[in-house]
Design brief:
Keywords: Cell membrane, Membrane, Repeat, Sugar transport, Transmembrane, Transmembrane helix, Transport. Belongs to the SWEET sugar transporter family. Mean pLDDT is 80; it is low at 221-259. Helix 3 (47-66) runs parallel beside helix 5, helix 4 (70-93) runs antiparallel to helix 5 and helix 5 runs antiparallel to helix 6. It is built from eleven helices and two strands. It has a two-stranded antiparallel ribbon. It has 261 residues and is mainly alpha-helical.
């Protein structure tokens, strides 16, 4: 339905969503260029990229089961390719411990859990029941992953630093949520529309926080930056700039595929 010219507005929003989402998928490129140059992952986490890959795989499966959802397939195929490159690069440049952790997460989530979902939906359900079950699985997973933005919002409030939450990325994710919500609404697919209501809400909150804290002096306790610890209530802190690595890590936590559809 989304690709049909009989639904020109749905097609237009789906196409626009593809463009915005594709650009958002490319947001972590500076992080991985830095990893490539330094030949080290420098403490960056692989989980956001493994989760983003899983999300793209899940939405492709949903679109294939529902059928005639070309615009969902195209963007998530692109997402699978891009996130796979990120995961491979991380695996190549990570130390032994991080590499083993990434392998366990990948096998457990992208192979084991995804395989279980496929078997569960294909063997136990048929027709519309299969679409409904898979749709709610997609919605549930998309909503659960919003825990990452919540942690970033908390960190911004505690450190009074917007370096953890780049405005351009928050804006692009908000626009993406709006476009995909309208797309889902027009094709009457609540499973596509519902997660993006929450995506839009979090995006607006993040941009509001950015505007509020953009001129504030960042507060980070000395000696705790590397450990990623935040100041406890009443703890003395020293004013200093937030390190660049924190910004890149925050960007990586905005998993694009999660909010794309």
């Amino acid at each position: 339905m989304g690709f049909s010219l009989q639904h020109p507005w749905a097609f237009a929003f789906g196409l626009l969503g593809n463009v915005i989402s594709f650009m958002t998928f490319l947001a972590p490129i500076p992080t991985f260029y830095r990893i490539y140059k330094s030949k080290s992952t420098e403490g960056f986490q692989s989980v956001p990229y493994v989760v983003a890959l899983f999300s793209a795989m899940l939405w492709i499966f949903y679109a294939l089961i529902k059928s005639n959802e070309i615009l969902l397939i195209t963007i998530n195929v692109a997402g699978c390719v891009i996130e796979s490159i990120y995961v491979i690069m991380y695996f190549v440049y990570a130390d032994k411990k991080a590499r083993w952790f990434t392998a366990k997460i990948f096998i457990g989530l992208n192979v084991g859990f995804f395989g279980a979902i496929m078997l569960f939906t294909l063997l136990l359900f048929k027709g519309d029941k299969r679409i409904v079950t898979l749709g709610w699985i997609c919605v549930g997973f998309s909503v659960s992953v919003f825990v990452a933005p919540l942690s970033i919002i908390r960190r911004v409030i505690q450190t009074r630093s917007v370096e953890y939450m780049p405005f351009n990325l928050s804006l692009s994710l908000t626009l993406s949520a709006v476009v995909w919500f309208l797309y889902g609404l027009l094709i009457k697919d609540k499973y596509v529309a519902l997660p993006n209501v929450l995506g839009f809400t979090f995006g607006v909150v993040q941009m509001g926080l950015y505007m509020f804290y953009m001129n504030k002096t960042p507060l980070i306790p000395e000696g705790k930056i590397a450990a990623g610890k935040l100041p406890a209530t009443g703890e003395a802190v020293t004013e200093m700039a937030v390190p660049r690595s924190c910004k890149a890590e925050a960007m990586s936590h905005h998993s694009p595929a999660v909010n794309m559809v």
